[in-house]
Design brief:
Length: about 270
């Protein structure tokens, strides 16, 4: 078993389905699928709220440095995020449930998801039913985005402007946020910290036995099919691929199709 992180690891898991039930007063039923979601750089657990549906239990990882964890220092590495999350999952009351567990990560979250699934299987004895990785080339691929690197340079006085240009080109961030200096001052530090550990992450974790689902937007110019296929060695099961219309953030626009794909590709159950 892995060593638990200091503090309260449960803070890193946000039950988005439970929040939705509290707002709507709807009763809890037995879900067909449980999805543990790792957000992209700069995003909070609520990025995945669009996935909430009556028959799906959705949990989002809350990285330090945002929302309820705003005052915490940023994570030191992708592996540290995964270790904290693995401890929280192993301690969760649903950890031994027969409901299929999917670990899903988008962009930087794909790296966290791969590490998390590996730690769950090899250190916690929890084998996930599906590992789904979206919009991120596997570690070790070449990153030649000069504008992004300029946005991360602490000595560049134009770093914030470069990062905003990069975000605008990437899509997915509301223009109202990009044009508001106060909002940017709150969000850019977490984004920059996430991007640094994401770019420093250069290894694949120990492979998992779960099926692997590789996702990307058909118009996403940040990653091609070859970059996605480089994730292949992280799983020893069946590898499947899906492309959705859109750019770097296509998943919310295709929520039901995504959930159908996750259910279709997930193994029937998992063992602990």
């Amino acid at each position: 078993m892995s060593t638990r992180p200091n503090g309260s690891p449960a803070r890193c898991l946000v039950d988005l389905s439970a929040q939705d039930r509290l707002r709507g007063g709807t009763p809890s039923g037995t879900p067909r699928l449980r999805v543990l979601c790792c957000p992209p750089s700069g995003a909070a657990a609520g990025y995945w709220r669009f996935l909430v549906r009556d028959d799906v239990h959705v949990l989002g990882l809350q990285y330090p440095g945002r929302e309820s964890r705003f005052r915490e220092p940023p994570a030191s590495s992708v592996a540290a995020l995964a270790a904290e999350a693995a401890g929280a999952v192993a301690a969760a009351p649903w950890a031994s449930s027969a409901v299929p567990l999917v670990v899903l990560g988008h962009s930087m979250g794909a790296s966290v998801a791969a590490e998390l699934a590996s730690r769950l299987e090899h250190e916690e004895g929890i084998r996930v039913s599906l590992l789904a990785l979206s919009a991120k080339a596997a570690p070790g691929t070449v990153d030649d985005d000069a504008e992004l690197r300029a946005g991360l340079d602490p000595h560049d006085p134009q770093a914030d402007e470069a990062l905003v240009r990069w975000l605008r080109n990437l899509g997915g961030t509301p223009e109202a946020v990009l044009a508001d200096p106060e909002l940017l001052a709150l969000q850019l530090p977490a984004l920059r910290a996430d991007l640094r550990i994401s770019m420093a992450h250069d290894r694949l974790p120990a492979p998992v036995g779960a099926p692997l689902l590789l996702l990307r937007g058909a118009e996403d110019d940040t990653v091609d099919a070859t970059g996605m296929d480089a994730w292949g060695p992280v799983g020893t099961g069946v590898v499947q691929r899906r492309e959705y219309p859109g750019g770097h953030h296509p998943l919310a626009a295709h929520r039901d199709r995504l959930l159908d794909d996750l259910m279709a590709c997930a193994a029937p159950g998992r063992s602990r």
